Amino acid sequence: MKSALLCTLALLVPALGMAREPSTAGAEVYIVSPQDGAKVKGPVTIVFGLKGMGIAPAGIKFDGTGHHHLLVDSDAPADLALPLPANEKTVHFGKGQTQTTLTLAPGRHTLLLVLGDYLHIPHDPAVISKKITIVVE
Ligand SMILES: [Cu+2]
Hints:
Layout: H1 2-16, E1 28-33, E2 39-40, E3 44-51, E4 54-55, E5 65-72, E6 90-92, E7 99-102, E8 107-116, E9 132-136
Parallel strand pairs: 2-9, 4-5
Antiparallel strand pairs: 1-3, 3-7, 5-6, 5-8, 8-9
């Protein structure tokens, strides 16, 4: 009886874990513009680039796709198995947008893109851009 219960648990536990969607080998996300180190006047239009995978709106599960998340003045989350938060530093583009225009305070800012799956969870392995720095005049 006890061993039967343990067997059942052993089968259930992996199913309950949040399996991350696989990314496509060689997939890359990057910021097309502005360029790293650019001095810009606000508001700033940020154009997202993606190679090797496709864009799908949040909530739609389709292999090899995801949607963009722009992280302003922050690093990629430490735990990539969790959905990306929605806050003022993490902007979701769940409609499948590939650019945005932001009003940023004058000064230095960092920008980072993270591709997330239909549940806003980074893929495995995660597809994360290089972090760029811009200066808003
Ligand atoms: Cu999202």
